[in-house]
Each structure stands twice: as C-alpha cells, then as structure tokens.
Amino acid sequence: MQNKIQLVTTTNTVEGWEIVKYYGVVTHQIVIGANIFRDVFASFRDIFGGAVRGYQKDLDSMQAVLLQQLKEKASNMGANMIIALKLDYEDVSGGGKSMFMITATGTAVSAKPLSAVINTSEVGHLDVNSNKLNYEILKERYIASLKNRSIVIESIDSIKKLEYYNIYNYSIISNFIDKHYYHNDHNFSILYSYFATSSRDQINKFLLTRNVINIKNNKFEIILKILKDLQWFDMPIIIGLLNERSIQPVSKGLYLLLLEPENYTKYDLQNFDKLFQLLNSLKGKYPAEKVTKNLIGKVKKYWTCINCDQDIPIELNHCETPSCYSNIYGVIQNKSNPDSMISIYSERKRVLERLFTENSI
C-alpha cells in the first residue's frame, strides 16, 4: 500500500501528531564523483563569485533527488511520514575509485493528527522546487527517448545520466558493456557507481537476463569485479544458473562462485549440498561434442569455445587461443571449474559447521 509522505523531519516526534506504527529504517544513497567536492572547496577563495553558488545548486539538486527517492521507499512501505532524518557524506574512495556517497537515513512511520483542526492536506511543503520540476521533466523526456529502439548508449557519460535519473535499465547496461565498454579506472568508477545505487533485487534480476547470460566472459569479468567490490553473493541465484541446460548460464554460475559473502548463515550450509550435487553433474557433461565429416569421409570431433568461437579438438580441455585460454566450461584461464569449486566449498562447509557448533555451545 502506498501513502503520500506528508512530512520529512529531523526530529523524532512531530507536535500535534501521534505515531501509530513504525515501519523501520529507510535509507537511500547517491554516489557521485569526488571532483565536485574538490572543486567546491577550491572555489571558496572566490566566495563572491558564481562558482560556489553554482556547485551549491548542484548539491541542492542531488539532495532533492535523494530525498524524493527516500520518500518513495517509505511510501511503498505504507508510511506517511519520515522522522529522524539524517544526511551523511562519506568518502568511498579506494581501488582506483574517487567518489563520495551521500546517504539519507530516516525512520518510516505512520502518524495521525491529534486534533481535527490539523488539515493533513496542508502538512508539509506546499511548493515544488524548480530544480525538482525541471529534473522530473528532463527525466520523463529521457525515459521516452530510451523507448526508441534506435537509441544505443555508447558513452560512459550516458551511464552517469542513467544513474542521475535513477533509471535501472539493465538491458541497456549489458549491451553497453558487451559492445562499447573499455576498461580504465575512470570508466570502472562510473559503472561501479551505477551498480552501487542498485538494490540487491535489481542486481539479481540483471544477472538472470538473457543479455547478461550471453555476454562474453571477458566482459562478464568486469561485472564480476563490480560485484566483488559490492560484496554481492546470492547462492540461490548461482545454483539457478548452474542448473540451466546450456553452457552460457553454467559458465556465469562458475564465475560467481569465485565471490564470497561478507557473512555466512546456517541457511547457507543447506545450499552447499545442492551446490555439490550440481557441480558433480557438470563433470562429463561438457564440452558439447560436435562431429563433422570432410569430402573424403574423415571424421572431425571438436567443441566450440563460447568466448572466442574457435573450434577446439575434442581431446583438448582448454581453448588454445592465447587471448582466451578458456576451459571447457567457458571460464577464462581456468579460474573456476567444478573440481576446484567442490574443493573450496567443501573446506568452507567443514569449517563453518565446526564454527556454528562451537558458537551454539
């Protein structure tokens, strides 16, 4: 159920209102380049000039967008008010990334007026900020343009635009990574920033799209690096990919097993046995053998590498293309295969069982 958010306040109570239900903490983040902050502080010497005022306007616009997203989340929870609002600015630089994250956190609640004199329709802001109005107008125009199938995003700056308008179109993103992305620290930071503002559910849906499943693994490794930095891990998603009938999703599942969650629970142990069953079932299933005959009837047996599309003699268990060198499961440089993952996760399961037992004593 959605309610209109009538008030956002930094206080824990609101005079004239009674809080009748607490929905819990609601939070939203925007990750932006740190350059804007360096430029702001460098411009303080020109305090009467337009530089500081211009950057202040940019920051105000970002804050307005951030609060709007926070209100939408609280509204989806069924709240009509956000109390205890707090804004935090955090440096998330590292690993070649130079960014700041603005986080808005509050408590979503339902409240009712203590007196019938209070007109609930008049609570909160009666005006609409011009920056917010223009933002929504431009966002609508941009969304409309994306519906044109001839629109193809080829610039990394376009990813920043998707993030700015809070548009999570993963078909566009996967196509961009596959066809146009080239790696450097700046480009990676922008792509990382886009995914950092995504929810876990959005990322999971992204990983299961056909575009991502069919993407070449040298490009998927870029996604893998982002997921590692975000500490993403979802065993049911990985098991679902390994359970598919074609090599493309299986390959992606083997890649994702290279990641690790920040914390394990006893529920994860239940998934390990299913994981071992699937990994064992993959042995002998690949590579998919292909057979051809030439004009004199000589038989050729081979398998096709899913990364470089080269035909490989069936007796080889890896692609011999120097820039590829994938194993029979399509994993570049044999970084992951059923045997190696069974060994790694068997050890993890054994130690986890011991630790959970010790902690329960």
Please give a handful of descriptors for the protein shown.
361 residues; 2 domains; 4-stranded mixed β-sheet; globular; 13 helices; alpha+beta; 7 strands; 3-stranded antiparallel β-sheet; Translation Initiation Factor IF3
Number of helices: 13
Quickly give the structural class: alpha+beta
Please give the alpha-carbon distance between the first and last residues.
Answer: 43 Å
Order of helix and strand elements from N to C terminus: EEHHEEHHHHHHHHHHEEEH
Strand order of the largest sheet: 1-3-4-2
Largest sheet: 4 strands, mixed
Detail the poorly predicted runs. Answer: 38-51, 120-126
Describe this protein's structure.
By secondary structure, the protein is an alpha+beta fold. The protein has two domains: 7-118, 2-Layer Sandwich (Translation Initiation Factor IF3), CATH 3.30.110.70; 134-274, no CATH class. Helices cover 46% and strands 16% of the residues. It is built from 13 helices and seven strands. The strands form two sheets. A four-stranded mixed sheet has the order 1-3-4-2. A three-stranded antiparallel sheet has the order 5-6-7, with no helix packed on it. A hairpin with a 7-residue loop joins strand 3 (81-91) and strand 4 (99-113). The longest helix is centred in the first third of the chain and has 28 residues, at 50-77.
Q: Can you describe this structure in just a few lines?
A:
By secondary structure, this protein is of the alpha+beta class.
